[in-house]
Amino acid sequence: MIQARVVTLADLLLSFIYLEVLAMVAIYLKSGKLPIHIPLYIAIVALVRYLIRDMKDMYQWRMLAVAGAALILALTVFAIRYGHVHFPYEKDAD
Question: Which residue from 15, 77, 88, 93 has the fewest beta carbons nearer than 10 Å?
Answer without folding.
Answer: 93
